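User:
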Amino acid sequence: MPPDHDPERPNGCCNPGMAPRISAELAQHLSADLCILGHPIRLQILDMLAQRSGHVCVCDLEAALPVKQPTISHHLKLLREAGLIDVERRGLWAYYFVRSEALDSLRERLVYHLSQLR
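Assistant: Predicted structure:
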């Protein structure tokens, strides 16, 4: 038996057959999914919107969050671009709501792919 042979690693220390199970494209999509959830303000916004079955006025979000209006607007824009929320304008006010089907889809994707990492 060669001196560098490790019985616990039958293929040696370097496994030439090692390859990612997910494609680069899928990894990019999963990374974007995780990134959109990766900020505490966005998570708080999603939580507040999910608590209401209807629409939440932007003024209520501004009153509840510890950041200024431009920061809230920035995070709302990112969540809208990701398709997780939408907005309805009524006069001067904007009312935001969760797009349940998009949030369900995101949850299912993440749970499925993260459960594969065993």
